[in-house]
Amino acid sequence: MKIATMIEPRLPGAVQFAVDAERLGVDSVWIPEVWGYDALTGLAYLAAKTTTLKLGTFVVQLGSRSPALLATSALSLQELSEGRFLLGVGTSGPGVMEGWHGVRFRKPIETTRETIEIIRIVSRGDRLEHPGEIYPLPLPDSSGAPLVPLVRPQPLPVYVAAMGPRNLRLTGELADGWLGNAFIPEAAEVFLGPLRDGAARAGRTVADLDLVAPVAVEFHDGADAADAAARRHADGYAFTIGAMGAGGRNFYNDAFVRLGYGPQIDVVADLWRAGRREEARAAVPLDLGRLTNLVGTREGIAERVRRYRAAGITTLLAKVAGDYRDQLTTLQRLLEVVARA
C-alpha cells in the first residue's frame, strides 16, 4: 500500500514540503483544481525540485480544456518529470462548469469516455481522428484537418474521480486508476462492483487499477478526542450534501444512499436548504466522518488501514492538517503504521 498526500503549491514552504515528503517515502503528491490556481503549473515547478515523487492532479475538470490541449499539457508534464505525472480527471458539476468555465455541463459519462480516448490517441502519437458525439475530430463540415501530434509518444496514466455506477464502470474499463472519494471499506462493493464489471468488459481485473482512497488523517491519544475529530469531519459533509449538485442530482448524495444512509441524507439536505446549517451539520451520520477517514488512536488507525488494504485499496491519499512541519510528522506516523499493519 502506497501513501500519497495533497499539497497546495501556492503556500509558503510547499516546495520544501514536497522534497521532504519524497525523502520520507511518500509515493505521490496531488494538487487540487477548483476555481483558483490551476493544478498543472504547480506540478511543473515541483517536477524540477524532486526526483522520484509522482505528481498528480486531483482533479482537472473535464471541459475546462479541449481534450487535445489536456493531452499535450499532460505530456509536457510527463516530459518535465521524466515519467512521474499522473493525470487525474473528473467532470465536476454544472455549478462550476457553467458558472466558472462557461461550458455547458452535459453527458458527463460520454465526455469522460471521449476525453480519455482522445488522450490515448495523442499520447500514442497517432493522427488525431475521433468520430465522437461530444468531440468529433476534425469537426464535421469544417476545414479542420486530422493532425499528427508533435509529441514523443509515451504512456500517460489517467485516473478518474468517479462515484456513480456508470462512471465507475467506465473507469474500470478505460482508466489506469480510480480516485475514490467517500470510500468505506465495509461497503466496498458499492464502488468496487461496478469497477470490476467495467474492468471485465476490457478483459482485465480491478487489480490492474491503482485504487486511491482520499482520507483525512489525524492521530489522537484517546477515544473522546478521536470521536470529536470524526464529528468535525462528518460536519464537513453537510455542505457537500446540501449545496453540491444541480437539477436535482448530487452524485455524492447518490453514493451515500447506495452506502445505506438515504434517510439521514434527506434530512441533512432538507435542513441545509432551509438555512438551518448547524442542525444540518449535526444530522450528518457520524460514520461518514469516522469510516471515510483515518481518525483515531494509533491502534485504531492501524485497524482501519488493514480494512482498506483488505478491500483492495492500493494508495491512501492522506489529507493532513496543520503547517507543513505538522503534516510531515503525521505522514511519518502514517507511513510507520502502514508498514506494520
Account of the protein in words:
The model has no long low-confidence stretch (mean pLDDT 95). The protein starts with a strand and ends with a helix. Helix 8 (223-243) packs across helix 10 (277-283). The protein is an alpha/beta fold and 341 residues long. It is globular and about 65 Å long. The protein has 13 helices and 12 strands.
The geometry reads as: globular
Helix and strand string, N-terminal first? EHEHEEHEHHEEEHEHEHHHHEHEH
Q: Tell me the helix content.
A: 40-55%
Strand order of the largest sheet: 1-2-3-5-8-9-10-12
Strand content: 5-15%
Radius of gyration: 20 Å
Structural class: alpha/beta
Quote the average pLDDT: 95
How many helical elements?
13
Number of strands: 12
What keywords describe this structure?
341 residues, alpha/beta, eight-stranded parallel beta barrel, two-stranded antiparallel ribbon
